[in-house]
Amino acid sequence: MKYYAFLHYSLNTYTDQSWGFGNEDVRSFNPSKLDCRQWARICKEAGMKGIILTVKHHCGFCLWPSKYTEYSVKNAPWKNGNGDVVREMADACKEYGLKLGIYLSPWDRNHPDYGKPEYITYFRNQLTELLTNYGPIFEVWFDGANGGSGYYGGANETRTIDRTTYYDWKNTYKLIRRLQPDCVIWNDGGDRGDLRWVGTEGGLVGETNWSLLNAKGEVEWNMLHYGLENGDSWVPAEVNTSIRPEWFYHPHEDSQVKTVPQLMETYYNSIGRNGTLLLNFPIMPNGLIHPNDEKAALEFAKAVKEAFAVNLVTNMKVKASNVRGNDKQFGPDMSIDNDKDTYWATDDNVTNASLTIDLGKPTMFNRFLVQEYIRLGQRVKAFTVEALVDGNWKQLAKATTIGYERILRFPGVKATQVRLNITGSKSCPVISNIGIYNAPQILAAPSIVRNQSGEITITPADMESVVYYTLGSGQPTSKSKKYTGPFQSEGKLEIGAIAWEPATGKSSPVTREKFDISRKDWKITGINDEKANLILDGNPSTAWHQNNDKKMPVDLVLDLGSEQKLCGFKYLPDQGKTTGAIAKYQFFVSQDNTEWKQVDEGEFPNIKNNPLWQTRSFTPVKARYVRLRAVHEVNGNHDAGYAEVDVITK
Fold first, then answer.
1. Each residue of 252-265: pLDDT tens digit?
2. What is the CATH number of domain 3-308?
3. pTM for the whole thing?
4. Which of 116, 269, 533, 608 is 20 to 30 A from 357 (CA-CA)?
5. Which CATH superfamily is domain 317-437 in?
């Protein structure tokens, strides 16, 4: 189960929100083409082994006809209230040979008893329904978002809970173990689950990744991301990310589906780092996975298959510096026999050892895969990979942990021999599988940025590629305008660009950026720190934070230089820090920087875990000055940080 799907679908699919508030109208749930078989087919063809469905997200709406609430599909017009998405999903998974998992949000913004002991009974009753009526469940997923503002049966208030005690996870876990003994538990709050979050929804786990944590005690971010070498409990990493920027469907993201190079990067940074990959598909309002998402997932599957199509070690000769008891059962051949139940091992007192593979002739390769026999635990702490090139040994890569699977990438090299050096291990190493591959190059799309002066810079991912671009909505090709260096632009602008490889004639996916009015005349008012201008430089990697001595709410005021007809704004939090992201905001406009009008307020849901561009719209209004007020920071601090701020004009 190293690769499986997340499916996000709820009432906020129909309201274009990241999270539902709990007061969304059940009558909006009426998909015209809902087809769980389509979902299952796509996941199967994409090489996935299972599906985890959001049966209840934070809004509290249930995709099955729960007898414990009226806020479910049984009161929706879909199938005249006789539908059951979870049943259809279970049947589709069975048909396509996939395992079924469920996401059940502990936080319920609809239920009147949330925050009281009575809600825990309700929560467990629903969990029992799900674990007894839909066949085998391979994973139960409990989100870590807990407490906050909500409808709560009409109270419309903010409720807080102690996430470490309120849910009484110990007894909830007992219920799961009794009803579904083979099920694993993912939990980002309270008692330790069987799997762990990796501290980010960006699609990567640490290069060092131990599948261990301690059973008790607080888990800091470093432990989530890198594991704990001497932990006392087996808690492997599950990397969860979405095929689009956000988890639920938003029409404006149809052109922002991750490209094959981006998905391959996620693959190497999750599965290739001893993690599992949980990739999300947002379901559209009509009840289907979008064609763009399907296309990307299937092309991704094809790219993975092509990258690892030919294992160059097959039928090659291999020798080891040490073999456990000189027994052929633990010999070096066991590491290249394509059998995960056999392994090369050394004597107990040998924790530094090497395997040398003879490729027979100079052979080109750029990937090295290695697996430990994980049933005996994770052992390797450090290793290197070397290649014999023109009679000299050359180090190709140096790494730390291996675990179930580790994949190293490096520039293509032609060599006659390859050597794996275990340079540190907790006990004698046990290596079950080695693979050497020559993966075809996949061109990554270039990046496009515009700085405050209006200068456009297009940067390819590698120095060999040639960049071509178009101004407007046209599709760039190798016959489009060739990029030769930064150029000036004015006003609203759309640019498409590709990287093109002359040697093969291959091109990258298209990068497309839309820029609003130029920011060359913009000024930040009321702040004397020159570094504050970093929020206008067009570079998402730079950021500025307000002084910590300021208390929330904290204002950022921009002078746009002239009157504009505004209809929205955009905010990007600091991409390099876990603090400073604005969770709740107010937005004001003014003609003269004296009289202000509030035009929007709200929250940026999930911005802490998924710190992407936040876009908000409001009724068009003319103004020269704008004020973004930070009302609440994600951690409850008084630190307001900004990577970029922009406006949307009519």
1. 899 889 999 999 99
2. 3.20.20.80
3. 0.87
4. 269
5. Galactose-binding domain-like (2.60.120.260)
